Amino acid sequence: MQTSTGFGFSIMATPFLLMLFLPQEAIQINIILSLVISISLILKIKKDIDYNHLKRFTLGSIAGVPFGILIFISLNIDTFKLGVGTVLLILTLLLIFNFRIKTSPSRDLMVGGLSGLLTTSIGVPGPPLLLYFAGTETEKVKIRATTLAFYLFIYFVSLLTQIIVTGTNKIIWESSLYAIPIVFLGLFIGQKVFRWFNQKIFLIIIYILLGCTSIFLLFDNLVGYM
Fold it and tell me: Which UniProt keywords are given for this protein, alphabetically ordered (predicted)?
């Protein structure tokens, strides 16, 4: 999904990683694998990057990182699932009801800041970017390229910040290493699938992706309270 849409890996991987690992471990594994994906794809998509958006997203994200690490330190698993699920569900509804927003330098900075906060705290930078780009009806090629380039920066900064502040462990790096061959298989398939998507199919996939993930997280959280 990450290769073919520019989104998807973190949003889809996080719920499943939470079934196997502690929140901090799941987030760092997600970030490591997402960083591998961004590094692997950046040379292939660099010609399609919107560098004006990228620069402002990057600057804005720097302001969001410190607030994100504060959330990361005090993370509670139930609160985490509930928060992410709610954010994704609201995002899905806004997209389905054709929410639209005009781009501007100040909004670029704000979206970057929110993405920086979400990446460092829960390892999921995509929702603000997804809503912003879908609302502006940006072409799928530009969306994919610009978001992947931004991820390359924010994932690296977030991982480094988390390691410095809270540390890491052997399980995180071993599990990431085991997953990398499967990630590369997904990258190969995603590149093939991408050429079959038109803009309408692209948006439908985004809706399904966000909707299913948000419902899963909210349902799982509800079951935990029962």
Answer: Cell membrane, Membrane, Transmembrane, Transmembrane helix, Transport
Q: Is the pLDDT of residue 45 over 90?
A: no
Q: How many Cβ atoms sit within 10 Å of the Cβ of residue 19?
A: 8
Instruction: Tell which wins on pLDDT, 106 or 99.
Output: 106
| Token pair of 8 as six digits | 């998807």
Q: In Å, how far are 116, 117, 164, 179, 185 from 182, measured between CA atoms?
A: 27, 28, 28, 6, 5
Cβ pair 34, 151 in contact under 8 A:
yes
CB contact set of 42 (below 8 Å; sequence gap of 6+): 148, 149, 152
Q: How many CB atoms lie within 10 A of CB 181?
A: 9
Question: What is the average pLDDT value for the chain, to the nearest integer?
Answer: 80
Distance CA 68, CA 162 (A): 10
Q: How far is CA 142 from CA 108, 113, 116, in A?
A: 15, 20, 20
Token duo for residue 25: 């471990």
Burial classification of residue 207, based on how many CB atoms lie within 10 Å of its CB (0-12 exposed, 13-18 middle, 19 or more buried):
middle
Three-class SS state of 124: coil
